[in-house]
Every structure is written in structure tokens, then in C-alpha cells.
């Protein structure tokens, strides 16, 4: 499959079949992230894959408590990848300060999209989740405070019947995106 | 080509052939970015493609002045894509504040990697550039202050002779990345 088909096929999957995901496939996804470029080659990321059922339940309970209950759907996913921001390198940190851009977040976006696209190619569904209790996730996995936890990625075999519902088609389709002319211009800012 | 081959083939190209890039190919790359997922579907991005030679020279001069002269190599690229962060949506902004994660940077990382991977598939070389004078770029393109300019992406047909030099092979190869076991664990933080 060429890249644009892969990109078109990806959607935010919020309903999964009750099937485990082969660890080999999970490793393939993380390998894709491992090779991602990053500012000063800092590779400011770690991934904790949670697929043990009791731990996953504890993680979901803590991650989606209180104001984060909107993200309860993640309990369905057989795999939750906890995306951890490792301290960026000295050079990258100095650059971030001078330029006022947290490059490690750009880097993590890039690496996570490798995971998501690789998963799509392997027939897996994924969903980025940014709305969760970082404190809760930190507690369950005992993650030191010096690390940030910007994202979770849910992963599993998609429930196709849900994917094909009108709701999802509306959300996932390219018709929910801005027109090209709104985001692209040549040789001048518009 | 499958995704992992595309990812392996990508490298930070800093030497380009003096050939223009077809606008159709540039549009294909931006179309790949257009379809990228983003927090709350905010699509917080705009891309100004600079390929007009005089404008590009002015842009390079301003972007790489003073402490940013390390990035002078960008003058060789026939195309410079100026990546602009549009204001995130209200929901995404509230989420960013509560969670202390600037989601728009994750989003822009994702969208830009679509550009870079699409370019790779089309035989084009690219390089992310984060070290440049934002003030200078803002001045040349008259970009209002409410927008951030986190990145430039250089693009062009790669000078293959340079790519194959030892220097680049060392930098681009997977041997410059951390081992999988340093970044991946199952069901516990290590």
C-alpha cells in the first residue's frame, strides 16, 4: 500500500474487537518509532506497552478518573501504549529555550505517527488519547516525575461494524479537514 | 514500498541537486499533511512553500543570520516549506492548559512527518530545520505575531554522492538510534 492510502485508511478507532494483539506486531510498531528523526537525534521517548489485563484495568481506572472520564472508551483497547517524554539532550534543550519551541513534543509527534501508520499497515486500529490523568498513569506505572507523559495510544483490532457507522465516517473522512487552499500557499503568507 | 522501508530510507538531506521540484509533487506532500490527525481535529497548521528564487534567498539570509548561521546549508534547497502553527481550537487549548502539554506541537510533528515520508516516497530529500531566526522568517513573509513558526522543512532532489558519504551514513543509519530495549518495555516502566 502506498503512503497516501495508509494515511487515508487511518482513523481514530474507539471500538476494538476482544482479541489480543501479537507482541511481534507491537514490537514492529515501536521499531518504526525507534527509527524516527528527532532534534539533535535526542530520541526523547520511551514506550511502556500495557497489555496485561489486570494492570491495564488499573491503568484505565486511574487514567480516566474524575474530569477524564470522557476517555473511558480506552478500557476496550487490548493494548495501551504509554508514551513517555525522556529528557531532551542538552543541545536540544538549549535550542528549545532560545527558540521557545518544545522540540521534544514535535519529536514525539513524529515518532508516534510512525507507530500509528505502522499499526494501520498491520491491520490494527489506534487512537491517540491526550485527555487522561497523567498523575494516575504515573502512579500505576511508578514513573518518576522528571518524565512527562504527553500521550497514550490505544491499539487493537478494530471493530469494523463501528468503523462503518456514519458517525465514524464523518469524523475520519477527509471531508472533516480544511481545504488545501486554507493551509497551503506559495511564496506568500495568506 | 512498505512503511518501514520508507522510514529506513528517509534521512536528513543537507545537499541537494540544483533542480526545481515539480509543484504537483509539493502539493502531494501537503495533501498528506492535510489528512493528518490532530487533537480535537484542530488542524493547527499552515504551510508556506517558498520556491521563488529571489524570495528564497531573502528568506535564507534572514533565517540564518547571526547565531543561526549553522543552518546556512538550507540555501541549497530548491524548496523551503515554512511550517506555521495556527491558533489551536478552544477545546484543544483548554486541554493543553490543564494537561500542560502543547498539543499543537505534537500535531505539527505528525503532519510534518506525513510531508517528509510522502517526499521520500516521491524520491525527494528533506531536512527538518528548527534552528533559524523566527523573527527573520516572520519579517520576510509578513507573518502576524499570533502565529508561531516552529519549523522549516527543506526539500529537493538529493545529491546522492553526498548521501553515500560515510558522514551521512553514520548519521542517518539505524545504528545512531538507541536500542529497542532502551525505549520499550512491557507492563512496567524501566
Annotation keywords:
homodimer; 190 residues; NADH Oxidase; 4-stranded antiparallel beta sheet; 9 helices; 5 strands; 16% strand
Characterise the protein shown here:
The structure is a homodimer of 190-residue chains. Chain A is 43% helix and 16% strand. Chain A contains 9 helices and 5 strands; from the N terminus they run ααβαβααβαβαααβ. With 190 residues, chain A is of the alpha+beta class. Chain A has a 4-stranded antiparallel beta sheet with strand order 1-2-4-3, sandwiched between helices. Chain A has a single domain (14-163), classed as NADH Oxidase, CATH 3.40.109. In chain A, α2 (23-34) runs antiparallel to α5 (103-121). The model of chain A has no long low-confidence stretch (mean pLDDT 92). At the A-B interface, α1, α2, β1, α4 and α5 of A face α1, α2, β1, α4 and α5 of B. β5 of chain A pairs parallel with β1 (45-50) of chain B.
- By DSSP (H or I, 4+ residues per run), the number of helices of chain A equals 9
Query: Fraction of residues of chain A in helices?
Result: 40-55%
Number of strands of chain A: 5
Oligomer: homodimer
Query: Rough shape of chain A?
Result: globular
User: Averaged pLDDT of chain A, please?
Assistant: 92
Largest sheet properties of chain A: 4 strands, antiparallel
Strand content of chain A: 15-25%
Number of domains of chain A: 1
Determine the CATH topology of chain A.
Answer: NADH Oxidase
Q: Uncertain spans of chain A, ≥5 residues at pLDDT below 50?
A: none
**Second-tier CATH architecture of chain A:** 3-Layer(aba) Sandwich
What Rg of chain A is obtained from the alpha carbons, in whole angstroms?
Answer: 18 Å
Which class best fits the helix and strand makeup of chain A?
A: alpha+beta
How are the strands ordered across the major sheet of chain A? 1-2-4-3
CATH superfamily of chain A: NADH Oxidase
Distance between the termini of chain A: 34 Å
State the name of the first-level CATH class of chain A.
Alpha Beta
**N to C succession of SSEs of chain A:** HHEHEHHEHEHHHE
Main interface by residue count: A-B, 78 and 78 residues
